[in-house]
């Protein structure tokens, strides 16, 4: 497919392939109850989380990201053709240097591609889609690989009941490239407010380096402050990106939010005017996997047939920074019938 079917027009760009990975080890609420001062019922009723996955001791964020890219390749072996930029959104990089993106690129046969990490915590995947779109529109890259991957279990104090119960490990990988006119990304809204930085922080951590950093360099959080911020920005950024696109919530088939807490998602749904029945929620099984929640939710809803080609999606996320990101997109899954229809529409028949 050419980048721009009509000379002089901006090419439509979107997600052309999507893969995910979650480590096999399940950690249930009962496992926490057996070990620290909490109880399984409290965790589920206050967060919606029932279990999460933890990486193996020798499994780090780059390995999780590679797992997601391998899943993507299993679904579409040609998906990485023309990828010349790799962006890894992560808050739990293997190390500060080298970038986790460079390590992932090397392992999936993309050595030589531009590679860098993006640090906007749970907003990272949606931020990354926008950055990849920008690189392609600027002519710097032909296609981009955006990986949201985390091994949060290694940077969260597993004895701190305020944070330990919330987070899990996982990854998602998306190729960004040309899609038929009328499909793909419509608009993005990105933002950050460093004034709230102290509500959610990680001073420094490099779990993979032998002898790396001392314990104590784990995630710190003021849960109530983050909760209030999350509800406000998910609503505001969702409404802003809808207005930019000229849509109302009634036009949206599926809301795909960052999965941090079911109560945050419910409040955000109310603010955007979306029912929970049209919202993809899977945090019960994965917890908060930071930059991986949006692709994990998206992939699951595609696999079970909820999200279908041509549907209108609204993605909203928030995270450390504090940061937020929202996006509207018309899903294009590459179905031949849709390509044919889109090509007919492009030439006006
Ligand atoms: N088990 C049992 N009791 C607990 C636990 C626990 N794991 N954690 C806290 N409590 C207790 C508290 O000590 C408190 O007791 P007290 O009343 O005697 O003082 C009581 O439960 C209520 O505490 P709150 O903090 O008010 O509980 P809340 O209902 O706000 O839920 C939570 C806490 C789940 C952390 C919530 O505030 C939240 O989800 N905040 C957002 C967190 C978030 O999304 N973080 C990730 C951001 S994304 C990123 O970028 C990484």
Q: What does this entry look like structurally?
A:
With 349 residues, this protein is α/β, with parallel strands linked by helices. The chain folds into two domains: 171 residues, Peroxisomal Thiolase, Chain A, domain 1 (3-Layer(aba) Sandwich); 146 residues, Peroxisomal Thiolase, Chain A, domain 1 (3-Layer(aba) Sandwich), CATH 3.40.47. The strands form four sheets. Strands 1-7-6-4-5 form a five-stranded mixed beta sheet, sandwiched between helices. A four-stranded mixed beta sheet has the order 8-13-12-11, with helices on both faces. Strand 12 and strand 13 form a beta hairpin. Helix 3 packs across helix 4 and helix 7 runs parallel beside helix 8. The protein is globular and about 60 Å long. The N terminus is likely disordered. Bound molecules: acetyl coenzyme *A. The site of acetyl coenzyme *A has 24 residues, from helix 2, helix 6 and helix 7.
Side-by-side strand order of the widest sheet: 1-7-6-4-5
Helix/strand-derived class?
alpha/beta
Give the helix level as a range of percent: 25-40%
CATH architecture of the largest domain: 3-Layer(aba) Sandwich
Q: Roughly what fraction of the amino acids lie in strands?
A: 15-25%
Largest sheet: 5 strands, mixed
The number of helical runs is 11
What's the β-strand tally? Answer: 13
Terminal residue distance: 19 Å
Low-confidence spans:
1-5
The top-level CATH class of the largest domain is: Alpha Beta
CATH topology of the largest domain: Peroxisomal Thiolase, Chain A, domain 1
CATH superfamily of the largest domain: Thiolase/Chalcone synthase
SSE succession? EEHHEHEHEHEHEEEEHEHHHEEH
Shape: globular
Radius of gyration: 19 Å
**Total domain count:** 2
Bound molecules: acetyl coenzyme *A
